[in-house]
Design goal:
159 residues; mainly alpha; 0% strand
Length: 159
């Protein structure tokens, strides 16, 4: 983003990072699906596709806001550069960014929780620990990737 713009968007990116990290670690440390409650189930917040979709949509709103705030109405000129026939491709790109953020985070969290649940159900004592450690690493990595992509998308529209 550069030294002149990062301070404006650091609170958003840091908040997204900390939320995703906390949510992922909550799901990676405790195999919630093993605990049975009368109605519903316990899981990490990022195990729900609605949460990850909301985070991805908030990221999209943030980079639209950043582009419009920095460049004004001239922000929309990026859709027809370098040639006007790229307009549909550039519009589709703006829809695929939140989709990729959404499905990447959701898929990795669900896969990790299902793996830990199945292994804890089959072999409940020592075998799940390495898988849970791998889940902690993957959870931290997913939070970093999500925040980095959010910052990269914001930086892309303001340069």
């Amino acid at each position: 983003m550069g030294p002149s713009y990062y301070s404006q968007f650091l609170p958003f990116v840091a908040t997204v990072f900390l939320f995703v990290l906390g949510s992922n670690l909550a799901g990676a440390l405790i195999p919630w699906k093993i605990l049975e409650i009368p109605s519903g189930e316990l899981a990490a917040p990022t195990n729900d596709i609605n949460t990850t979709a909301c985070l991805a949509i908030l990221t999209s709103i943030a980079y639209f806001f950043a582009g419009f705030k920095i460049k004004g109405i001239g922000y929309f000129a990026r859709y027809i550069k370098p040639a006007p026939f790229f307009l549909p491709i550039n519009i589709v790109e703006d829809f695929t960014k939140p989709l990729s953020l959404n499905f990447r985070l959701f898929g990795n969290v669900v896969a990790d929780e299902l793996t830990v649940t199945v292994i804890c159900s089959l072999v409940p004592l020592i075998i799940p620990l390495p898988i849970m450690m791998l889940g902690l690493f993957a959870s931290s990595l997913q939070a970093l990737i999500f925040a980095t992509l959010a910052a990269a998308y914001i930086g892309e529209v303001i340069e």
